[in-house]
Amino acid sequence: xxxxxxxxxxxxxxxxxxxxxxxxxxxxxxxxxxxxxxxxxxxxxxxxxxxxxxxxxxxxxxxxxxxxxxxxxxxxxxxxxxxxxxxxxxxxxxxxxxxxxxxxxxxxxxxxxxxxxxxxxxxxxxxxxxxxxxxxxxxxxxxxxxxxxxxxxxxxxxxxxxxxxxxxxxxxxxxxxxxxxxxx
Length: 184
Known about the structure:
By secondary structure, this protein is an alpha/beta fold. It is 31% helix and 16% strand. The strands form two sheets. It has a four-stranded mixed sheet. The protein has a two-stranded parallel sheet with strand order 5-6. It is an enzyme of class 2 (transferase).
């Protein structure tokens, strides 16, 4: 069911602004490292775009956005698992849902390869499918597609830019006590 209203808020992060679109139940429907609401709203399928986008202050503790905002702030403070339990919803095919479920299990500080993610999801040669699941992810960083690298250790792509991906990986490596991945 398409929500009639989504609540929008922006959180300042060291990687840039993180814009969230959240439904009345607090479920993140779309998010991204930009302050352009049109860019984030475009991540939603056309028939799932709400009639109303209501702006709310990131500090409004009573807003539906509050749990997601609190999780992002905890993550930024070094609690790397804080994003794991944030409810998200995005339209996806069954194979993509499996890949994204496995993606949420990739530990911070230990990036996976596209092929490794595909194999974890039971797709022996599904690195292309894993790449598409990451590229079409509408709820970054809650579904942490930034934690997937090419098999040679290179960063690959990231919808929000490689500088954001590098920052997220370095932040997670620092707080997880891991080695910072190769940033090619």
